[in-house]
Design goal:
Elements: E1 2-4, E2 6-8, H1 20-28, E3 42-45, E4 54-55, H2 62-68, H3 75-81, E5 87-94, E6 100-102, H4 106-115, E7 128-132, E8 136-142, H5 145-154, H6 156-162, H7 164-172, H8 178-190, H9 194-209, H10 213-218, H11 221-230, E9 243-248, E10 253-256, E11 262-274, E12 280-283, H12 291-297, E13 313-315, E14 318-324, E15 332-338, E16 345-347, E17 355-361, E18 363-366, E19 369-372, E20 376-379, E21 386-389, E22 396-402
Antiparallel strand pairs: 1-4, 1-20, 2-3, 3-5, 5-11, 6-12, 7-10, 7-11, 8-9, 8-11, 13-14, 14-15, 15-22, 16-21, 17-20, 17-22, 18-19, 18-21
């Protein structure tokens, strides 16, 4: 069944046809006019009530259809999650950084939902996986301790915000005490007076402008300047000195488990997450910041950015399919990539979960109906599709999200 999906026009999104979201939308719905001055930030594929998908031929909401036909979810999905789709599938097109944030684990989500139900509106966790479609930049997890110590030691403005006593303790601490002092440094930064923070950032930006290119590169000057242009004086600008700066090539992925600090900076990606909207923010955002919760929830696990890359594996000896399978039941993503132009037919592997397909490149035919780039399909559990490959000179690429049961 083909779906018509919700587009979110958040102001951080890429505008017009620069956005993969807009490109997919237009390719699958040629009659739609794309506004070149409007951001096309996210495409939501699933049953979440904030952006529900509908069946293209009838207009019925997908969550209503699933509710009437619960067996299509699959027995294992129903046993684990009840009679609902446990994941939300997305495309993101990012022009301006998203907030520095983390997502709570299930226990914390339950507590936050009880204490602040208008802010944290559900009790579910929100692990997520992002697969780059274009060159993609993100902050993810804490840098190795020695890297953070070096930045605190060599950037006077950062040192000033943290305060001499806390900064010196952190710079000189051993590995056993690193987490304790790192937490204290982050707390000092995030709770520092906003006017003073803005002043220190301005002073630092001025210093960077007179540095040689090598020094600027070591301090990630161009990224800091861009973040400050979008969020002037925001404390989150200093996040690049605490969190790993990761640059994904198309096809590379990162997995963000509970209590993992992160921020997407730029690029287009496929994303899948547990069906939740719980976000704890602390910077690079005009939205509500919950600094005390963020400080307490983070793991303060420090490791190189290379450790944050999430590897796929070949799916059941199928050379054209790989699976990104995180350590949770809520979701996994299969990527089908047919680059051999002599392949004219492809039989998909049936799954024990309902799934959603997005065609990102190429053109296929199923049961005498043609689907092309941007088409989104819903499959019931154990349903097997026979694809006729119509792409002649370009690859056929399909992403398939399902529960990981």
């Amino acid at each position: 069944m083909e779906l018509k999906c919700t587009v979110q026009h958040y102001d951080w999104g890429k505008k017009g046809m620069n956005s993969k979201v807009a490109q997919f939308l237009k390719a699958a719905n040629p009659e739609i006019k794309i506004d070149e001055d409007k951001p096309y930030a996210e495409l939501w594929m699933g049953t979440h009530l904030n952006g529900p998908s509908v069946l293209k031929n009838t207009g019925e909401h997908l969550h209503e259809y699933v509710g009437k036909n619960v067996t299509i979810l699959g027995d294992k999905v129903r046993k684990t999650f009840g009679d609902s789709l446990p994941f939300l599938f997305k495309v993101l097109s990012i022009d301006k950084a998203l907030s520095i944030q983390a997502h709570p684990d299930k226990q914390l989500a339950t507590n936050l939902n009880k204490l602040h139900p208008t802010i944290y509106k559900d009790s579910n966790h929100k692990p997520e996986l992002a697969i780059a479609l274009t060159p993609f930049k993100a902050l993810c997890g804490f840098r190795p301790v020695t890297e953070i110590q070096n930045f605190v030691n060599t950037i006077p403005e950062l040192h000033n915000i943290i305060g001499d006593n806390t900064a010196e303790h952190f710079i000189g601490c051993n590995e056993a005490d690193a987490k304790k002092y790192l937490k204290k440094c982050l707390e000092r930064i995030l709770t520092h007076h906003s006017d003073s923070t803005a002043s220190q950032i301005k002073h630092f930006i001025n210093r960077l402008s007179s540095m040689d290119e090598s020094s600027r590169e070591m301090l990630h000057a161009s990224i800091l300047e861009r973040l400050n242009a979008d969020f002037p004086g925001d404390v989150g600008c200093f996040g690049i000195y605490f969190f790993n700066l990761i640059e994904l090539k198309p096809g590379e992925a990162i997995y963000l488990g509970p209590n993992e600090p992160h921020a997407y900076l730029s690029g287009d990606c496929i994303e899948c997450m547990a069906c939740s909207d719980n976000v704890v923010r602390a910077g690079l955002t005009p939205k509500l910041k919950d600094v005390p919760t963020l400080i307490e929830m983070l793991t303060y696990q420090c490791e190189p950015g290379s450790q944050k890359l999430f590897k796929s594996k070949i799916l059941m000896n199928n050379n054209f399919a790989q699976i990104f399978q995180p350590p949770i039941d809520d979701f996994s993503i299969i990527q089908i990539n047919i680059t051999d132009n002599t392949i004219k037919e492809y039989k998909m592997i049936p799954l024990n979960s309902a799934s959603i397909l997005l065609i990102t490149e190429g053109k296929i035919e199923i049961d005498n109906k043609i689907y092309q780039k941007g088409s989104v399909l819903f499959l019931g559990a154990n349903e097997q599709l026979q694809l006729k490959i119509l792409s002649e000179k370009s690859p056929t690429v399909i992403f398939q999200a399902s529960a990981n049961v």
